[in-house]
Amino acid sequence: MMRFMGVDKFDKSALKRQAHRDVQFDHKRRLSLLAQHEKAELRSLSHGIKQRDAQRQKPSRIFRRPQTAAPV
């Protein structure tokens, strides 16, 4: 591109391509981070559910045990 002080060395299409690549890379990186956070939250939620289920089942397990006769 001719400028009043000389030739402009910047290629508009190359700059656009690089900007597009940068935006795509950043978008993919953000999606990846969101997916990682989602997996961590789901693991945490699943762990909490399993713990609550175990606590809820504990009384049932105690009452299901065979009763032994008391010594005379």
Task: Give structural notes.
The protein has one helix and two strands; from the N terminus they run ββα. The protein has one helix at 12-64, and strands at 2-3, 6-7. Strands 1-2 form a two-stranded antiparallel ribbon. β1 (2-3) and β2 form a beta hairpin. The longest helix is centred in the middle third of the chain and has 53 residues, at 12-64.
Distance between the termini: 107 Å
- Give the mean pLDDT: 85
- The run of helices and strands is EEH
Strand order of the largest sheet: 1-2
By secondary-structure content and strand pairing, the structural class works out as mainly alpha
Spatial extent as radius of gyration:
32 Å
Q: Tell me about the biggest sheet?
A: 2 strands, antiparallel
Q: In which range does the helix fraction lie?
A: over 70%
* Percent of sequence in beta strands: 5-15%
